[in-house]
Amino acid sequence: MAHAQSMPSSTAFTAVAARKTFGNSLPAEQVRPSPSFASSTTSSTTASATSKGKRDWPLPVRTYVQRCFAEENILPDVKLQEMEVKLKQVISKAVETGTLAVVDWDNLPLPQMMIREEYARAPSVRLPSSPIRSNGVPTSTLHGANESKAKKRKSSETGPVDDASSRTPPWSQANSRNAFESRISYPGKRPRNEAGQENGSSKSFQILDGRKKRFEPTARGTSPVRPWRISTAQEAGPQEREGPIVGRCQELEKKYFRLTSAPNPDTVRPLPILEKTLDHLKRRWKQERNYSYICDQFKSLRQDLTVQRIKNGFTVNAYEIHARIALEKGDLSEYNQCQTQLRALYAQKLGGHPAEFMAYRILYFLHTSNRIDMNDVLADLTPTEKQDRAVKHALETRSALALSNYHRFFELYLDTPNMGAYLMDMFVARERLAALSAICRAYKPDIKLRFVTEELGFESDDESARFICDNGAQHLLEERDDGVRLVTGKASTFFEPALKAASARP
């Protein structure tokens, strides 16, 4: 007992704080070294770099080192190796300059804070955000991150440690067949550390800095072009960004040019000038009938309306007139462009003649044999539209073709309202061949040519005879005492090939 009382008060073991969590116990190699141990290790490393002998470091320096490794001062976005290198640089510089005892170590920023400020000054480097508690400790890295940092510090202090097993995914450890797969490197994937940064940060900084310099202004003060950052507002002219332009051109006639840049108000005619231009073009069309000139002028007029975003009754009138002229000359390309714009304008209730152009649309689908769009049009028709004379005529024409009633079809052909006859002229030859083929199968042995003229809607016998001869059936025409007759008994299916050829080209 007396011997026990004579023992010194200092113990032969290191005090360890009691555990307060139920997590797995840390392995021996992952236990975080105490600040005093890190301080002495770092201090010995610094001392060996400056002096080969032992050195008695001042108390403020030792306190500064302990603060660097304190738990509450660890930053998740600063790697431990970088912090140690920075700490060594700070102490070595103070030793070399002889200011070791002069520096205010109590108020000197910690190395990790210096590194964070360097990160913040680099515009191309973005620090990962981490929620911080009121005491300065990140809430997301209280246990798991501390274990990984302790392991990294342990490996840096004691030498290189092969931790390949810790980097191997669990699925690769469980399945030995994935050994070769783990050796494959996939493009676009780089290993990242716990803080979310790429390994080898100094090299990454150099790469990012090089990329930043590529986009810095050149010697002449002009920045390089970055097409992927050009917004639509930068591509468009100032007028397009601010809204529709207002033209200032006062000329009535202007050639059509396809726009390759923002429109110039000095070359665009305002609405009052466009109204005078339309009257001028209508007079020129009645006098000269020069379609190439009129079409070019109307396209220019439509372009000026579009760039100024003018949508009113005048716009509808201009498109309708151009569509009628194109229909008269058989220019289906320009007609379809006008018809498409008119559908959008009619939906805005801007006036015009929507029923007339609805009838044209139905007849156009009969010409192209477009049954899908035809069904859509029939489904969208209202009872009021069906009562319109032009629409009613177009619907009856469709019904006659669906029933192969050529007699009724040609009656409607001779009584077409508005300009629908121009569209029906585009497919009437096809329907005449179909009707002529049916007549040759129904009437034997021959019929009068006059009957063919009346049934197929020809104006004279000469016109019907010319149609038959144009299709290679002149040998079927015989002149007799009662007039010219068509020998249907010899025709049979003679007109079938011509009918298939006509149906193949809409």
Account of the protein in words:
It is a single chain. The chain has 506 residues and is an all-alpha fold. Helices cover 54% and strands 2% of the residues. It has 26 helices and three strands. Strands 1-3-2 form a three-stranded antiparallel sheet. α12 packs antiparallel against α13. The protein is elongated and about 145 Å long. The termini are far apart. Mean pLDDT is 76; it is low at 1-9, 23-53, 124-167, 172-183, 186-200, 219-223 and 225-241.
Overview in brief:
With 506 residues, this protein is mainly α.
Could you name the key traits of this structure?
506 residues; elongated; 3 strands; mainly alpha
Give me the secondary-structure topology.
Elements: H1 2-5, H2 35-50, H3 59-68, H4 80-97, H5 111-121, H6 144-158, H7 164-167, H8 170-174, H9 201-214, H10 232-235, H11 238-242, H12 271-288, H13 291-307, H14 313-328, H15 332-347, H16 354-368, H17 371-380, H18 383-386, H19 389-402, H20 406-413, H21 420-424, H22 428-442, E1 447-448, H23 449-455, H24 461-470, E2 477-480, E3 483-486, H25 488-491, H26 496-504
Antiparallel strand pairs: 1-3, 2-3
Helix pairs in contact: 2-3, 2-4, 4-5, 12-13, 13-14, 14-15, 16-19, 19-20, 22-26, 23-24
The parts where pLDDT drops under 50 for at least 5 residues are: 1-9, 23-53, 124-167, 172-183, 186-200, 219-223, 225-241
Q: Oligomer, anyone? A: single chain
Number of helices: 26
**Proportion in β-strands:** under 5%
Average pLDDT over all residues: 76
Sketch the topology as an H/E string, one letter per element: HHHHHHHHHHHHHHHHHHHHHHEHHEEHH
- How far apart the termini lie comes to 121 Å
The global form is: elongated
Specify the biggest β-sheet. Answer: 3 strands, antiparallel
Strand order of the largest sheet: 1-3-2
Radius of gyration equals: 46 Å
